[in-house]
């Protein structure tokens, strides 16, 4: 797949492609800096391949250059194509691709803030991660920025888009919210009840996670990955471990792969149950919320019994898993069959209540072309007719061995997102059953000593959608760890989902998208 | 409506009697780590592997002191894994306190 693809691109772009390296399912094509827009545009629009991440590295010590990587995912054929450009450290600017590919918007602004690489021609070059009190010319992910640096605070201003006209009101919400949730700013412009514009501003909780990765040892890094997005712990830990295992060129024991599937699917089940409970809460249907929350709690307690942690933490390690779950097999299977029965009954009740369905049908619609243009991922994408799932398209762990369906809905509204989640809960339970029924014997972990220098992608389909890690290792230390959480892709979709909806429906739309602040803002 | 009532009756009360009746954590739960002074060799392996860095080895007035803070502990169990029996993760989870000092534990030995 990769070879044909590379040849086709070479024929099309000739000398613009400087170098091609393939390892595993990843092909790295170094291209001329000036050719980035036309090559990315060709891959994205002509070949119809989604752009799933953009990230930079600071390799000035080696060759005086920063590199920007554009990651494209070819679902049919399980391949990744990474377009790489070199940017001279003395002239840190390159052409923006956002005017051609909307999904590049936030990545380019993030790189601008963290590496000081200027995307020339970006339609919205405001700061994204940094606040106005952060001084100019200080870029935390550059190698010459020391982790202990405390830059002085400066004066500055952030300009919001303004919607003006007779009867147009602005409703600013957050970043301080009434309640215990994370900080984010939502600026609504309304004409009466309907929302005519929403602008979100996030990144109030920047923790410097990617910098932190570069300053800790590999075994400790697994625990850091686990804590990036609290309720997607297993997905993050597995994605990180898989990236490192790919660099090391090792195949973990089959039993560990099966156990990872069980953990990842338990995580999906409890997240989806929690989201369905949240949607019921937001339409004020307390009975539905109580039952869905009760089922979620049962899974959390099951997690605790099986792994020693309600949030499935501390289970993954580079080389496999840390604890065997074989002896808990019967307990898990019994509990899940009870929960499945209970859950099916609950969904039937919920979907038969006209006052509930009326609130969620046609609410918060994300049209297919919007979802595609922003590269929305996970259940939100699948509810808008995008048939993508990393478990199937870039299969990892033991997923290739199991049968499961990828539920897809077309309507793109809260109802569709609820139905996708409900179906996914049942598919997940099916996957756990298959994994436990055929759990292979053998070790659960292999020891890996020194890890050779190299880089690789690691990826999982978290409950919120595709989670992507790109790890680069030199001398057994992480020199770059790029984390792309699904919420980084999905947050912008909420600006479109709420249009023409009424303000009272915002909480339902928000809940149905299940967006993470912490995962988005590292 | 009738269905909802039926479901409610079938589910019954799910609330437990905690804290009047203690809620015992299941076997294998990773809770409060405990230091056992008679087994500790003060080798410092736990200090090296602790991801959040909340275990310290210090020396004061001819005594070796190993201190652990429950404050930043993430209950990963790495210390227990590398130690030869002097650190054990227990089933205890009621760690909330009003004073940070209450969340420190230490063992010491004369050098």
Strand order of the largest sheet of chain B: 2-3-5
Beta strand % of chain B: 15-25%
Overall form of chain A: globular
Number of helices of chain B: 3
Question: What does it look like?
Answer:
- The complex is a heterodimer of chains A (522) and B (111).
- Chain A has 522 residues and is α+β, with helices and mostly antiparallel strands.
- Chain A contains 19 helices and 15 strands.
- Chain A folds into two domains: 2-120, NADH:ubiquinone oxidoreductase Nqo5 subunit (Beta Polymerase, domain 2, 2-Layer Sandwich), CATH 3.30.460; 209-520, Cytochrome-c3 Hydrogenase, chain B.
- Chain A has helices at residues 2-13, 36-46, 60-63, 105-115, 209-213, 218-226, 233-248, 254-282, 286-307, 329-351, 354-360, 368-374, 378-382, 390-393, 414-437, 486-490, 493-497, 506-513, 517-520, and strands at residues 17-23, 26-31, 51-59, 65-74, 79-88, 93-95, 118-120, 168-173, 185-191, 195-201, 316-317, 320-321, 454-462, 465-474, 477-484.
- In chain A, strands 1-2-5-4-3 form a five-stranded mixed β-sheet. A three-stranded antiparallel β-sheet of chain A has the order 8-9-10. Chain A has a three-stranded antiparallel β-sheet with strand order 13-14-15.
- In chain A, helix 7 (233-248) packs antiparallel against helix 8 (254-282), helix 8 (254-282) runs antiparallel to helix 9 and helix 8 runs antiparallel to helix 15 (414-437).
- Chain B has one domain (25-110): 2-Layer Sandwich (Alpha-Beta Plaits), CATH 3.30.70.
- Chain B has helices at 2-11, 45-49, 78-82; strands at 33-35, 55-60, 63-69, 87-89, 104-110.
- The model of chain B has no long low-confidence stretch (mean pLDDT 94).
- At the A-B interface, helix 6, helix 9 and helix 10 of A face helix 1 of B.
Features:
heterodimer; A: 522 residues; alpha+beta; Beta Polymerase, domain 2; Cytochrome-c3 Hydrogenase, chain B; 2 domains; 5-stranded mixed sheet; 19 helices; 40% helix; B: 111 residues; Alpha-Beta Plaits; two-stranded antiparallel sheet; 3 helices; 18% helix
């Amino acid at each position: 797949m990769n070879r044909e693809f590379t040849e086709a691109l070479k024929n099309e772009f000739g000398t613009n492609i400087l170098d091609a390296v393939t390892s595993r399912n990843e092909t790295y094509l170094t291209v001329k800096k000036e050719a980035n827009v036309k090559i990315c545009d060709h891959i994205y629009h002509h070949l119809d391949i989604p752009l799933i991440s953009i990230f930079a590295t600071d390799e000035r010590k080696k060759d005086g250059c920063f590199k920007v990587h554009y990651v494209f995912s070819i679902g049919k054929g399980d391949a990744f194509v990474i377009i790489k450009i070199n940017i001279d450290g003395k002239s840190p600017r390159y052409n923006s691709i956002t005017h051609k590919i909307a999904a590049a918007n936030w990545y380019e602004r993030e790189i601008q803030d963290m590496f000081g690489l200027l995307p020339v021609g970006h339609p919205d070059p405001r700061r994204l991660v940094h606040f106005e009190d952060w001084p100019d010319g200080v870029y935390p992910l550059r190698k010459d920025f020391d982790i202990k640096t405390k830059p002085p605070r400066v004066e500055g201003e952030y300009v919001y888009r303004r919607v003006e006209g007779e009867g147009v009101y602005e409703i600013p919400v957050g970043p301080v919210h009434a309640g215990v949730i994370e900080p984010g700013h939502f600026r609504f412009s309304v004409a009466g009840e309907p929302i005519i514009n929403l602008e979100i501003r996030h990144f109030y909780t920047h923790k410097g996670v990617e910098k932190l990765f570069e300053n800790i040892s590999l075994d400790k890094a697994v625990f850091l990955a686990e804590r990036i997005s609290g309720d997607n712990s297993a997905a993050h830990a597995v994605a990180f471990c898989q990236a490192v295992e790919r660099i090391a060129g090792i195949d973990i024991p089959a039993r560990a792969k099966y156990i990872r599937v069980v953990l990842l699917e338990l995580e999906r089940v409890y997240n989806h149950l929690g989201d369905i409970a949240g949607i019921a809460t937001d339409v004020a249907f307390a009975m539905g919320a109580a039952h869905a929350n009760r089922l979620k709690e049962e899974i959390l307690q099951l997690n605790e019994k099986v792994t020693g942690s309600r949030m499935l933490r501390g289970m993954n390690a580079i080389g496999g898993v840390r604890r065997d779950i074989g002896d808990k097999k019967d307990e898990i299977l019994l509990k899940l069959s009870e929960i499945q029965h209970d859950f099916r009954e609950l969904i039937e009740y919920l979907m038969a209540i006209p006052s509930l369905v009326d609130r969620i049908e046609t609410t918060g619609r994300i049209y297919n072309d919007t979802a595609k243009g922003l590269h929305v991922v996970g259940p939100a994408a699948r509810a808008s007719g995008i048939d993508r799932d990393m478990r199937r398209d870039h299969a990892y762990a033991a997923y290739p061995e199991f049968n499961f369906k990828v539920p897809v809905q077309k309507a793109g509204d809260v109802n569709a997102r609820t139905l996708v989640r409900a179906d996914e809960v049942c598919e997940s339970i099916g996957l756990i059953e298959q994994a436990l029924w055929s759990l292979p014997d053998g070790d659960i972990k292999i020891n890996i000593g020194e890890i050779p220098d190299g880089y690789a992608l690691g990826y999982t389909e978290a409950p919120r959608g595709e989670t992507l890690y790109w790890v680069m290792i030199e001398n057994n230390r992480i020199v770059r760890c790029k984390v792309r959480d699904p919420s980084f892709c999905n947050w912008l979709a909420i600006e479109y989902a709420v249009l023409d909806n009424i303000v009272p429906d915002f909480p339902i739309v928000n809940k149905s998208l299940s967006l993470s602040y912490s995962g988005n803002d590292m | 409506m009738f269905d909802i009532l039926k479901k409610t009756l079938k589910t019954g009360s799910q609330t437990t009697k905690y804290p009047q009746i203690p809620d015992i954590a299941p076997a294998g739960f990773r809770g409060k780590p405990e230091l056992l002074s008679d087994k500790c060799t003060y080798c410092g392996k736990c200090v090296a592997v602790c991801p959040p860095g909340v275990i310290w080895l210090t020396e004061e007035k001819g005594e070796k002191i190993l201190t652990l803070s429950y404050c930043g502990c993430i209950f990963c169990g790495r210390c227990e894994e590398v130690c030869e029996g002097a650190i054990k993760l227990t089933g205890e989870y009621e760690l909330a306190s009003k004073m940070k000092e209450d969340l420190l534990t230490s063992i010491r030995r004369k050098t």
